[in-house]
Amino acid sequence: MDILSARDVEQSFKDALKDDLVGTRIYEREVGLKKNVYTSLWVDVKRDGFRAAILHLCQLQEMPHFTVIAPADRGEAVDLLYHFSLYHGHHLKAIALAIRVTLPKSELTIPTISDIIPGAIFAERETQEMMGVQVTGIPDDRRLFLPDDFPQGVYPWRRDETGPQDMLKVLPGRQGIQHE
Amino acid sequence: MSDSIHKTTFTMPIGPIHPAIHEPIRLDLSVDGEEIVGVDVAAGQVHRGIEWIGMNRNNPVQSIYLAERVCGICSACHPFAFVQAVEQAANIDVPPRAEYIRVIVAEIERIHSHLLWAGVAGHEIGFDTLFQLVWRVREEVMDLTEYITGNRNSKAMYQIGGVRRDITADQLPTVQKTLDYYKSVFGELKKLLLDDPTVKLRTRGVGILSKENALRLCAAGPTARASGVPTDVRQDHPYSAYADLGVRAITPEVLTGTVVGDTYDRIVVRLLEVKQSVELIEQAVAEMPEGPILNEPKIAKLLAVLKKAEGEAVARTEAPRGECMHYVRMKAGEDTLDAWKIRAPTYANLISVPAMLIGGQIADVPIAFASIDPCLSCTNRAVVVNKCSGTRSELDSEQLHALSVEKTRRFHSELTGK
After folding, report:
1. Do the chains contact at A68 and B343, CB–CB below 8 Å?
2. What's the pLDDT score for residue A179?
3. Would you tell me which residues 362-401 of chain B have a C-beta closer than 8 angstroms to some C-beta of chain A?
4. Is residue A172 part of a domain?
5. Beta partners for residue B393, in sequence order
6. For B350, which residue in chain A has the nearest alpha carbon?
7. Which fold does the domain B50-348 belong to in CATH?
8. Cβ(B58)–Cβ(B304) under 8 Å?
């Protein structure tokens, strides 16, 4: 396995995904007295190219370390950020890689990756229950953190009408949280 | 014939109330006699919605304190990751001296956490003398934490753009004294934890996680390293002063020559990491530059900068239990964070628990499950459900613990011939 620089990894994603790639960004920051560089690479892909992006990643390192899915409600759309450590196990060579898929709220589905990376199953279950994104092909679609008696159709991380606003207890003398 | 074997499989939920260790969780074990044939993990009993508060109620400086309270033990690594993510998103520089102090505090936490775990492991197998001894040794580092940060646990050292307290020159002799103490007792600790034949019998070959499984299931920290995966955020990602210190991941073959990936190997890794932490603190103290410790001491000014910030960032730290990650997105004009996601190491390591327990015995559950150092372990209460008749029988923590203790005693008496 060759260890590529962040720029080469970026280029390899461009070559592999072509039109399914939306954009990339490299962030670099010098740390410590020896000025080593911390690198994070952000790759935005379309849903159609998402699995291809994960498979391409597995070409770069046989088993990249999957960390978590970080979802964010962006109003009209939902962002899913799949965080990885690429080149883990190599001194100062790891790249913090995030693959982003932006899903319109009218169609909140994403294919599973737990057949490629089994360790992603908890994050997929969490994304389903917390963000209301349907993970197609998920081997285990039970809830993970929410209790079974939590109402259906309420997603704690959403900032729209499906969010948990109605369930909050507003203490006397405090204001409830207003979302525009 | 095979049908009748299926009928004798029992489901044994363990949990969810576990007051003895920090957090509750439920393990549903399918058991065939004494052997575990299936495991399901049910989490969420202490889901407190911390990220939601950071996204809806708190400003980022308030969220540092919230991050510190994600876990009772990891009160350095969570704020460490959080402030780094905010600094990247808002483009705030950190003075080099602060980076070194951050590392020193994080390593002190690692010593305390690993020793705490070693004591608990002793307790889980019914070796309470070991538990008391190790926790006595741990007291020294708790005193050091209090001496440096003013608190035994919630350290409140981390601030966006630096740290809140300096480690001054007149404090350094006390730091060195504590480090010398740990160097002097290391040999004895090693003898107690690794050479004791009973401990070895109870932990060797118990809860094995193969290297392949550790990679597939994305295990983190000592759990992954004990399976021979040389991954360590301090080594892999250049962050903070760790990039200067040349940290290398510790895998068990350094000491034992082989990698089994069992509970014993996890003890080896954690014990060696205590030594590594002592050395890292010494190195950091020696190389620590002079200078300011905070980029912007005035909180109001800092908050104004943070309110204008726009961007997103991800930061990782190596917590005592493994990789801890914080993702932060900031939007200009908003007091709160726009998005915040925390990934604590136990979240990753829980996925590996079924792979470790299957094929093992009920009496090995406490030590094998505790060996990932979950922020939730110790088995308090188990309900045994007979699937055929629907009858339930309950095993409480004492009974399950007694099973574990009995097994240790049996090994011990076989060894000593008494």
Report:
1. yes
2. 54
3. none
4. no
5. B384
6. A122
7. Cytochrome-c3 Hydrogenase; chain B (1.10.645)
8. no
